[in-house]
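Ticket closed. Logging final result for Thioredoxin-like fold domain-containing protein.
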Amino acid sequence: MSLPPQFSGHRISGKADAKHTLELYLDYVCPFSAKIWKQVYENVLPWLEQQHPGQVQVIFRNQIQPWHPSSTLVAEAALAVEQIDPAQFAPYSNALFVNQKSYFDEAVVDKTRTEQYKSLSALAATTSPSLSHDKVLSLLQIAPVSTAAEATNYGNKITNELKYHIKLGRQTGIHVSPTVLWDGIIENSISSGWTLEQWKEFFGNKL
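Final structure:
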């Protein structure tokens, strides 16, 4: 599956001309997504780049699960970061997974949308000097109106980017996270609980 230029940050390892593609459909507030991300980000990617350079590109795909309302807001924040500095998409994604419990249902049930945007922007500012709180927040925030008649329902400056990822997941037939694709086909054998050795065995049979 191709990756539009504006989402270049979603290629978290390898290059577009790699022989193989591993796609990870993940939700930032899904515990199992966090589990597979940690193993891949911390161990699998360095091993791949050292042992099989140029063989595999790894692409992160936003799988937004609406039964967790904050999933949309957290994904928006990651897309805002990518728009500002694509190189920070993966580090910020890692920060989101590390801090994912801050965005679980019970943690945000009494927080407004704007409060959550401010929290996400503050986290971004701790990730890189290129990601100022105000810069990220400016892409996320929505100005309130005095009356319902004034409302436009246009969303924020990230809404169109968000729509792309939702449409992609639906078109591809992805239902839950994590879901992993190998060369465009869903690979049901891959588990979020895999060790590095199991990942090595998988690639040993594929490369």
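The domain at 5-206 is CATH 3.40.30.10 (Glutaredoxin). No further action required.
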